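For reproducibility, we list the full input for the S-adenosylmethionine complex.
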Amino acid sequence: MRYMIFSSVVASQKQLLRICISALHIFVSIFSTVLRWTAGECKNTISPNKHRDEKTVQSAIPTSVNYHFTRKCNYKCGFCFHTAKTSFVLPLEEAKRGLQLLKEAGMEKINFSGGEPFLHDKGEFLGKLVQYCKQDLQLPSVSIVSNGSMIKEKWFQNYGGYLDILAISCDSFNEETNQLIGRTQGRKNHLDNLYKICKWCQQYKVAFKINSVINTFNADEDMTENILQLNPVRWKVFQCLLIDGENAGEAALREAERFVISDQQFQEFLDRHSSISCLVPESNEKMRNSYLILDEYMRFLDCREGRKDPSKSILDVGVKDAICFSGFDEMMFLKRGGKYVWSKADMKLDW
Ligand SMILES: C[S@@+](CC[C@H](N)C(=O)[O-])C[C@H]1O[C@@H](n2cnc3c(N)ncnc32)[C@H](O)[C@@H]1O
Ligand code: SF4
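The corresponding predicted structure, in tokenized form, follows.
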């Protein structure tokens, strides 16, 4: 009897201990969640006037990332919103480490941009990153945006197999207009390059895309014939955007005010090209926060205040902490058609 009383006391004490431990677990997890949501770094370092949807912040996954690994460029487009404020480029292994962190955080598409991405190490740095992202990280989509002036056929031979999409920027099919915009270097002919690269893309099985910035110099142009001839998989048509500190304001390296067009002018351009099915329009509103932009230090750039405010580097604090400060608007990303068929393997292309 005494033994039974003793063992039931021990059992109830054990049960009590178990209850205490699980209560402690619950308390710790609630406490850490509350800490994360209410006193976490995210909230502490954003400026108090910024409204933030906590749900968006917590669930942001870097599905599609634009890595501007260099700011240097050989062109001088007068409206450029990512200018040569530094000449820094990460060492290759650090850039790869950052890309791996992004992949672990859910990245599916990487787009390399700049500055001019083919400039650094004559395109070898870019080629090695493209190869790493496709071969090692097995990303569904690897793409590049370039002005096209530095690309050699050899690059396609070495790295074309690892690239899904190559976008070449072309704002006019009139070479004089390209000169006026500054989309040129010396005696290089921007349009000759564009047509040459279009052919290489077919030859080396890379999906070819065109980006155009609509501005005061080209707003009245009709590009229908040329676009139909080049037949890109996608034609991105941007309304020229101002970013304080980049192409507007005191600290800026460019003064793009004279390039800015009204919403109506932009709409007229779109209407003129409404027969082109691959056209994807991006007004200023759609463009501003719908891109996850990583700069040369692998810091997310937040454009919500009309300038590019950097986060900490993902290399120092990890993707989850840095992305809190990206200002990324996932709804707008989806609304602008940011998610599309982006692997060349899934595109029904006539190679
Ligand atoms: C900054 S560039 C870097 C890549 C490359 N140098 C090029 O021009 O394609 C990336 C894209 O942004 C576009 N862009 C540059 N300045 C812009 C602006 N103010 N508004 C809208 N798009 C712009 C370019 O035309 C290009 O398609
Ligand atoms: S938009 Fe023009 S100046 Fe700016 S990075 Fe591209 S090519 Fe260079």
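The longest helix spans residues 2-39. The chain has two domains: 7-44, 62-343. Both points were considered when choosing residues for closer inspection.
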